[in-house]
Amino acid sequence: MSAVPDREAKPLKSLTILLVEDEESLRQLTELILRRAGFQVLTAADGPPAIQILQKAQSRIDLVITDISLPRMNGHELAARLRDLDANVKILFASGSFGEPATMSLGGIEGVNFLQKPFTPTELLAAVNSILS
């Protein structure tokens, strides 16, 4: 499996990812990895700004990558709010909490996936490719 989405399916420059991560250095690094892979990336440090971005987005957001632990709104609440705005939005939860099983992290929400932190660029891009293909 290639770590980058199939260019024949949809050009990378037309794929948009909303990245929600409160840790600035991790947000910047993840954004860099995704941009270098050819994605358009919008970022937010917490849930409320992420909701505003989705509401104001000029084009469809293909994937939301969100930390589960955020300062003002956890990832589960954010996913529910985002799904209220766009029932088809794909979501990738990321968490560094080793005590939280991946199945609990998904919160029983269909179309939601999980990536354990820390992750490598290859693991991130493989997860993104799997979700978007």
Question: What this model shows, in words?
Answer:
The chain has five helices and five strands, in the order E-H-E-H-E-H-E-H-E-H. By secondary structure, it is α/β, with parallel strands linked by helices. It has a domain at 16-45 and 52-63 and 77-123: Response regulator (Rossmann fold, 3-Layer(aba) Sandwich), CATH 3.40.50. The chain has a five-stranded parallel beta sheet with strand order 2-1-3-4-5, sandwiched between helices. The radius of gyration is 14 Å and the shape is globular.
In short:
By secondary structure, the chain is α/β, with parallel strands linked by helices.
Give the CATH level 1 class of the domain at 16-45 and 52-63 and 77-123. Answer: Alpha Beta
CATH architecture of the domain at 16-45 and 52-63 and 77-123: 3-Layer(aba) Sandwich
Radius of gyration: 14 Å
Report the span from N to C terminus.
11 Å
How many strands, what sense, and barrel or not for the largest sheet?
Answer: 5 strands, parallel
Overall residue-averaged pLDDT value: 84
Low-confidence stretches: 1-8, 101-106
CATH superfamily of the domain at 16-45 and 52-63 and 77-123: Response regulator
Task: Determine the CATH topology of the domain at 16-45 and 52-63 and 77-123.
Answer: Rossmann fold
Give the count of helical stretches. 5
What strand order characterises the main sheet? 2-1-3-4-5
The SSE string, one letter per element, is EHEHEHEHEH
Tell me the helix content. Answer: 25-40%
Strand count: 5
Q: What would you call the shape? A: globular
Q: Which class best fits the helix and strand makeup? A: alpha/beta
Beta content comes to: 15-25%
Assembly type of the shown chains? single chain
